[in-house]
Structure to design on (84 residues):
């Protein structure tokens, strides 16, 4: 079971992707819903979504995958508090 903080980011990520948001719009949506989210949590939530058998929409998976790669390579503003 994912940690509560990652689960909240996951829920926002899935919701935004199913609404048709992508890239910057999806990023902004997730961070509006979860203001304390970090790039590390976003990537972890995206990996959860990619491995979730209930998420079967190819477009949603592609959008989440692209956002995860962007944030993983970006090395965005991570914090050590994610190491919990």
């Amino acid at each position: 079971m994912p940690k509560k903080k990652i689960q909240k980011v996951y829920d926002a990520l899935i919701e935004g992707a199913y609404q048709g948001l992508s890239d910057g719009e999806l990023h902004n949506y997730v961070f509006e819903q979860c203001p304390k989210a970090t790039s590390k949590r976003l990537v972890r939530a995206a990996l959860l979504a990619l491995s979730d058998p209930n998420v079967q929409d190819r477009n949603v998976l592609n959008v989440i995958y692209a956002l995860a790669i962007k944030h993983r390579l970006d090395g965005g503003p991570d914090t050590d508090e994610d190491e919990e």
